[in-house]
Amino acid sequence: MNRLPALLLALCLGACATASKKSNVETLQPTVERFHQLIRWKDFRSAGALIVPEKRAAFSKARTELHDDRDLSITDYEIEEVEFSEDGLRATVHSRIQWMRLPSASEQSDVVTSEFVFQGGRWLLERQVEGPFADELP
Predict the structure, then answer these.
(1) Cis before residue 138, ω within 30 degrees of 0?
(2) Options 3.10.450.50, 3.10.20.580, 3.10.105.10, 3.40.640.10; which CATH number does 22-129 get?
(3) Tens digits of residue pLDDT in 61-76
């Protein structure tokens, strides 16, 4: 009989953890979509707000130094795959991004790996591999 309350408590805690992971999954998609849309429309200030605080300044500085408001064009993006960590607090997003940065007239197509972390009740971009921002978000 003493095991029943312990079992019920374990089930409740498991259900709460599952609900928390589900809510994290549901809140990730709008963040990822918003980041991609903001960079496509060159709203780098708003995109910077979706980056972990310790990397925002480097991101903003690079946008200014590279004249990205004038020279960077994100022509298309497509989210291909999303993977979550076991605890549901980290996510790896694979996106195909087509972009070019003047003076080059060649469009590049990269599979960009973005790592998001759940901090302070929201998802933030922590790292990117490949793509136009790989140097500022290593």
Answers:
(1) no
(2) 3.10.450.50
(3) 999 999 999 999 999 9
